[in-house]
């Protein structure tokens, strides 16, 4: 059986007719398998949802207890219809997974979702899963994207904190994954002073702490005089009156897109921190080399660069061109 008969793109997203389910569907469906909790992959309104327990918890926290008619935690290989599915760590955010789909008479397909190969103290590391077809993201699928070690970005932050001790440092980071990643990196580097967080981050930070992620002393960034030099907030807060309570702040932003200087200038970012939860170009191509799939499908990102690399590596590749996937995690 050809891979296209096991999994193929539809208007609702990747669909497996042999199992009657979609993976990260773009609209409500009867049965959904979800790779992780970011809103461009996890949506409310499905009949049934299977995901890791962490992802199910995160969906409940973000969407409410009735986000789906029924839920099932992923726990080892599971037979659904005529296929077997299994979930494997993706290294992207807490609970993130790759989803492997196997058919007795066909190839094994691994849908990576969003993934990262860099060590991340907030989630389990990426697990290479041998497969015939690998579905890769291409968010940063161009050779220009080569991310530094996150420790160098923490050093940059510390240098600014030392140089401007009188100025609050407001760091923009997305509420799920990036905010906790930045805080955990700072804690690992020995920063033990209180860190103030915007109210929109509290619920997810509390959940990470419940799951054993050390975020240290977090205080609310709600008072007019916040007693912390380091403040973490979602990007949306920087366009709200909330930011006006800070006098002469150093504005920072943590994202893989900070590797593009023009993006930092457009956002008015004084302290760009290149911290990503996605694969950069070397990590993406290394992953494809390690896995050695017989075919690569490329989605949500710069597809052409990855497809061209695959052609040179003599790996058949094609774009899926799924719409609806943004870059919330960055």
From TrEMBL:
Enzyme class: hydrolase
Transmembrane segments: none
EC number(s) reported in the record: 3.1.-.-
UniProt GO molecular function: exonuclease activity; ligase activity
Domain of life: Bacteria
Keyword rRNA-binding carried by entry: no
InterPro entries attached to this UniProt entry: MBL (IPR050698), RibonucZ/Hydroxyglut_hydro (IPR036866), Xnuc_lig_assoc (IPR026360)
Keywords: Exonuclease, Hydrolase, Ligase, Nuclease
PANTHER family: BLL1145 PROTEIN, CLEAVAGE AND POLYADENYLATION SPECIFICITY FACTOR FAMILY MEMBER
Protein name: Ligase-associated DNA damage response exonuclease
Organism of derivation: Paracoccus aurantius
């Amino acid at each position: 059986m050809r891979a296209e008969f096991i999994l193929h793109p539809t208007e609702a997203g990747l669909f497996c007719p042999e199992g009657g389910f979609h993976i990260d569907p773009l609209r409500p469906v009867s049965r959904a398998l979800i790779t992780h909790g970011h809103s461009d992959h996890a949506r409310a309104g499905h009949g049934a949802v299977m995901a890791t327990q962490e992802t199910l918890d995160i969906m409940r926290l973000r969407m409410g207890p009735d986000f789906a008619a029924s839920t099932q935690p992923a726990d080892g290989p599971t037979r659904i219809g005529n296929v077997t599915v299994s979930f494997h760590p993706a290294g992207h955010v807490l609970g993130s997974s790759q989803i492997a789909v196997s058919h007795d008479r066909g190839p094994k397909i691994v849908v990576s979702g969003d993934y990262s190969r860099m060590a991340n103290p907030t989630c389990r590391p990426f697990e290479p899963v041998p497969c015939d077809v690998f579905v890769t993201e291409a968010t940063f699928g161009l050779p220009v994207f080569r991310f530094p070690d996150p420790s160098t970005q923490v050093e940059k932050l510390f240098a600014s904190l030392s140089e401007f001790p009188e100025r609050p440092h407001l760091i923009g980071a997305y509420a799920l994954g990036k905010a906790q990643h930045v805080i955990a990196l700072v804690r690992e580097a020995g920063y033990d002073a209180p860190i103030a967080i915007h109210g929109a981050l509290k619920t997810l930070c509390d959940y990470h702490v419940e799951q054993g992620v050390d975020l240290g002393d977090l205080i609310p960034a709600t008072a007019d005089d916040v007693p912390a030099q380091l403040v973490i907030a979602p990007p949306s807060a920087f366009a709200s009156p909330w930011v006006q309570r800070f006098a002469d702040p150093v504005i920072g932003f943590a994202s893989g897109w900070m590797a593009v200087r023009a993006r930092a200038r457009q956002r008015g970012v004084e302290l760009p921190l290149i911290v990503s939860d996605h694969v950069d170009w070397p990590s993406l191509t290394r992953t494809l080399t390690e896995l050695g799939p017989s075919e690569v499908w490329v989605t949500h990102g710069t597809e052409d660069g990855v497809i061209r690399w695959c052609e040179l590596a003599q790996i058949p590749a094609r774009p899926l061109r799924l719409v609806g996937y943004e870059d919330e995690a960055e």
